[in-house]
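hey so i finally got around to running the thing on that chain from the lab meeting. sorry it took forever, my laptop kept dying and i had to restart like 3 times. anyway pasting the input first so we r on the same page abt which one it is
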Amino acid sequence: MGNLMDLRPSFLRARTPAGKTSRDALRKLWGSVDLPDESLEHVLLTGADAVLPSSFAVGAAAQTSMAAAALAAAELWHLRGGARQQVSVDMQHAAQECRSHFMINGTTPNPWDPVSGVYRCGDGGWVRIHANFAHHRDGALALLGCPTGEGTTRETVERALSRWNATDFEQVAADAGMVVSAMRSFEEWDRHAQGQAIAAQPLLTIERIGEADPRPLPKYGHDARPLKDIRVLDLTRIIAGPVCGRALAAYGADVMLVNSPQLPNIDNIIDTSRGKLSVLADLDTADGRIALGNLLRSAHVFVQGYRPGGLAALGFGPQDAARIRPGIVYVSLSAYGTSGPWANRRGFDSLVQTATGFNHAEALAAGQEAPKALPMQILDHASGYLMAFGAQVALARQATEGGSWHVRVSLAQTAHWLRGLGRVDGGLSCQMPGFDGLLETEPSGFGELTAVRHAARFSDTPARWARPSSPPGTHPPVWPFN
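ok and heres what got predicted. didnt touch it at all, straight out
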């Protein structure tokens, strides 16, 4: 515990410019939801950007969002009768955790389909195609008149796109429910109606959506973790939503990942399932909906990343959940927020980076013409920790004020926030660091898993994953007895 504590007065602690950026960003985020300033005296942020090769403050974004989630857990622990404790987050460690690096049985999976990536169009513009799911790949290929399936080459796609205008193909793909984005500059995004809608929204919203009596959180002894006996239903896939659930599991929650047997996953599920129960429920069937309803009746948090309106159509939208389980904290993730012409548009981190100006700005900083991605999917990871932060703030409000609550986060809002953290001079000259000293190895249901240990450290209630990562359907759809 001693190596985590810095008992010097705050004005004597070394503060790098990047550390000050993280501290200021955390203070602003913390104050936006009316949490007590006293908590901020118990957080230690170390390190400075650049920690990864980028002209953006991706390290500060990783550190700030993770520190907010961890400090909220410590605040809940204090609400449950525990003493205030120190929370420490190192910037490089946080950024490395956000790179989604892991190995299974000594092998690092490649998450990208060969068709995924950026392409030049006939008008000189660029588009990014996300093809990691077969139905997205084949849908985009069909729109281009290319053969579907795994054998299609990038050269075939390039020839087809040479006959398209970038924004035209983006729109046609969106109309077909596919996931494609055209590259824009920041200036172009700022003029776009969706960019203006995002700029008018806060980073996250926490809204009371129903009445319910407060459920005070039980008190626990010193050996418990902050979220002990908090039940979380995790209906998310890919990265952002699963990172939220993984963080809540690290802080002691019983997190149940609910997968459909009809929907595909990507290899990241191996890493993001650490600490979770993993069940199957087909919500297109009555049995699946009954199973989820039964789980919801004793849950505290419901996290979902379905396309906008998708769960409401199945009877599990926020108002439905508040009716089934008064007092629920419902957390929603979207790509582009809740207002504007793209509010119902699907998207992933890489696509939002491209659409909102980051790939163009990073390319300019690198002196290249082709779009340049950020060094990790920071929109996903920061959004995941912001979701965990919002969920815990809402839990605290429910315990003290009552009510049912809806937390909303979007990748595009997180992008707008990241942009506001400023640029890092010379950041692209930073060398990509290795993972020495940051990895832990443990058995899992997928094989031997080596992954980055959690970067947020607690002086009194260390974060850990008590359950091994497990494949979908490993556990029955019932809550465990604690």
